[in-house]
């Protein structure tokens, strides 16, 4: 696989714009969540200002080569599937900017390019996503490359995130919910595990009106705001595993989740996400969690479509078992 630096060089194809198309990329130029073009977060209620208008959301992958290649002749560097690269996720080396290498070890690997269910902002040539390397996703693939000349390298591996038979008394279920879908899942998880369940409540709650909460949540996201939490957890050191639930808002975590992640030390802890959504899956929420709690380990997540339907309890059972948690 390419290194992260090699991938970005190839993706840009000689450009220095957000996308190698040198446009605000459209659904006719790449396969992505076309309802959400670049810049829509700031212009959701004034879409006439957008350079590219909302387009088609295909909800699946397309054949390679369905769109024009970049200037290097490479197809689908933006969209369709996110692509694994060689590097572990970590901070960039700001001193060495000429073909930099990533950290030697880590628990997350970088993926690039965005997929069919990502927003346009996640397709940018410079956008860095991360994911546990032992997990798979329906919008995550890889691209094989060949060295110009013979070289040598060492591939290391990481251990599984969770051991079998996690002590349920060391598990904390934390969730933020607006419509009730995430709350319902959290309560079922609590009943099945006997773990403590805590709802994250705001000092200044969001509106109960759907249109108003959209405006409030969007403003928090656009300003990278951390709304203050009324909920306090005094004994976080007692917990080794945090099951954290939230709705997918704007293809990421709601900002109250960001507040929570920055309020405690998650070093060495395992964070296992569960996410309710209306069609976008996790979006880039797992990446954003890993960035905010970089010293934690990320378990396999559970994606819940709206309320989860009749299969929710079985889905939760299977998910808990996959993470070594007994129900």
Arithmetic mean pLDDT: 91
Tally of separate domains = 2
* Major sheet attributes: 6 strands, parallel
Distance between the termini: 38 Å
Stated plainly, the CATH topology of the largest domain is called paralog of FGE (formylglycine-generating enzyme)
Structural class: alpha/beta
Given this structure, which CATH class of the largest domain is correct? Alpha Beta
What's the CATH superfamily of the largest domain, by name? Answer: paralog of FGE (formylglycine-generating enzyme)
Please, how many helices?
6
Secondary-structure element string: HEEEEEHEHEHEHEEH
* Rg measurement, Å: 20 Å
CATH architecture of the largest domain: Alpha-Beta Complex
Query: Helical content, roughly?
Result: 10-25%
Contiguous uncertain segments of 5+ residues: 155-161
Q: Total strand count, please? A: 10
Sum up the structure in keywords.
327 residues, alpha/beta, paralog of FGE (formylglycine-generating enzyme), Rossmann fold, six-stranded parallel beta sheet, four-stranded mixed beta sheet, 10 strands, globular
Summarize the structure.
Helix content is about 20%, strand content about 15%.
């Amino acid at each position: 696989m390419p290194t992260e630096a090699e991938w970005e060089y190839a993706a840009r194809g000689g450009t220095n714009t957000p996308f190698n198309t040198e446009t605000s990329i459209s659904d006719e130029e790449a396969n992505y969540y076309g309802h959400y073009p670049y810049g829509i977060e700031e212009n959701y209620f004034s879409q006439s200002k957008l350079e590219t208008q909302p387009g088609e959301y295909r909800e699946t992958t397309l054949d390679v080569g369905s769109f024009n290649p970049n200037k290097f002749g490479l197809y689908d560097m933006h969209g369709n599937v996110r692509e694994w690269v060689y590097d572990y996720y970590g901070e960039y080396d700001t001193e060495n900017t000429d073909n930099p290498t990533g950290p030697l070890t880590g628990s997350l690997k970088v993926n690039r390019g965005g997929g069919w269910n990502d927003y346009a902002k996640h397709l940018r040539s410079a956008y860095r996503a991360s994911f546990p390397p032992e997990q798979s996703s329906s919008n995550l693939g890889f691209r094989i490359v060949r060295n110009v000349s013979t070289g040598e390298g060492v591939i290391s591996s990481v251990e599984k995130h969770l051991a079998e038979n996690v002590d349920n008394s060391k598990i904390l279920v934390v969730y933020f919910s607006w419509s009730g879908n995430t709350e319902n899942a959290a309560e079922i998880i609590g009943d099945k595990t006997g773990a403590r369940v805590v709802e994250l409540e705001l000092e200044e709650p969001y509106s109960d009106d759907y249109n108003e909460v959209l405006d409030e949540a969007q403003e928090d996201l656009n300003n990278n705001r951390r709304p203050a939490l009324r909920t306090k957890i005094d004994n976080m050191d007692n917990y080794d595993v945090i099951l954290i639930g939230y709705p997918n808002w704007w293809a990421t975590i709601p900002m109250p989740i960001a507040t929570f992640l920055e309020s405690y030390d998650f070093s060495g802890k395992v964070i296992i996400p569960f996410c309710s959504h209306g069609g976008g899956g996790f979006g880039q929420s797992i990446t954003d969690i890993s960035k905010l709690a970089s010293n934690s380990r990320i378990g396999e997540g559970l994606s819940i479509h709206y309320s989860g339907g009749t299969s929710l309890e079985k889905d939760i059972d299977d998910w808990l078992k996959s993470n070594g948690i007994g129900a």
